[in-house]
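Tutorial, part two.
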Amino acid sequence: MTRTIRKVVVLGANGAMGAGSGAVFAGAGIPTTFLARTRDKAEAGLRRAEQMLKTTAIRALIDVGSYDDLDRAVAGADLVFEAVAEDLATKRDIFARVDAVRKPDSVVATVSSGLSIAAMCAGRSASFGRHFMGMHFFNPPNVIVGFELVPHAGTDAGVLDDMRQLLAGKLGREVIETTDTPAFCGNRVGFKVLNEVAQLAEEHGVAYLDQIIGPHTGRAMPPLATIDFVGWDVHQAIVDNLKANTADEANAAFALPAYMAKLIAAGHLGNKTAAKGGFFRTEGKGPNAVKLVLDPKTGDYQPLAQSASEPPVFVTQMRAFHRIGRYRDAFEVLATANGKDAELARRVVLGYVSYGLNRVGEVVIQVRDVDRIMAFGFNWAPPGLLVDLFGARRTVHQLEKARLPVPRVVVEAAERNLHLFTEPNVDRGRFFVA
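Running the prediction step on this input gives:
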């Protein structure tokens, strides 16, 4: 590195991403200032960071303040890290303040999960633009190491390289560089799948979809439970942005279901609103607790036990193969199983493969980039690995049969008998929960 980051200032340090990102910086031994609208909010962010790292030792490296302290703090910072509300106007306002007082060589970064990097720095000084980029941590930052580094057209290549070295080295991130496109790579691919399943839930049911597209298909959590974990409001912000600002083959998959919009307006935000819930909610505590599941058609909840059923045969068979490490055999089952259950699961899984690998050349440079962000950012089986497990030739055939776009990289893998997943030190089994 040609620069040393001796001081970081986090703006919006009371939020989940601000506190979590600040915890990563301080946990790496970098003195960090937490700023928020009030000093009390910044203190709350510090306590949140301590809880995340399960230590109070980082307090020695963190000082706190309000935005009244912004000029002084930013003037002494080597890296100004913005994590305020995910709103373009709000971010631009705070960047105007930062630009007026920052050191000429200080780096300014946003943790935005998908707003335009170029739009955020438009109109700022030439120095600000050269030193500005997206640094997208995934939540929670102290646990998830996947990381998207997002330059805009004016970002200085040397500054970008310095930050890449810091992130991949001292901060222990798995860094993927993406283009400045809506939601970048991980959220664009991941939320296409999540919202598609949410659309299907109105017809097929919540519990049913989470059962047939569960961890056996290569994800840490079932898709609708994941939306509850993320938060329905966050989900809406991401898919609304993608619906409005993309025009690709899957644009319709980003339309938020009407039943979700109605429930969001009524305060149903998933796990963060425990009393109202999202796709699921729990009533009562302890041994008398009852887990409820949403009926999207009516907006009502019913006991999950009443809607639960035995999993389809293909699910049971896949789980059995995963338990003994026979992952290719598990996906042979998915590829060949008959019936509407397997057909629906294949449709979602193949849609993920198709959409993810079609972003190569548009959002990222190579298959490995998509694979790494889905593996280390979402903890999902990467699309390249799924192609390897299905077999590239079979994947081409299955995609054509499902009338899904066949990515160029999959065609090349089939023609040249190539493997797409190329991470030698990654255990494939980590993606498949038996």
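Residues 186-204 form the longest helix (19 residues). In part three we will examine how such features are distributed along the chain.
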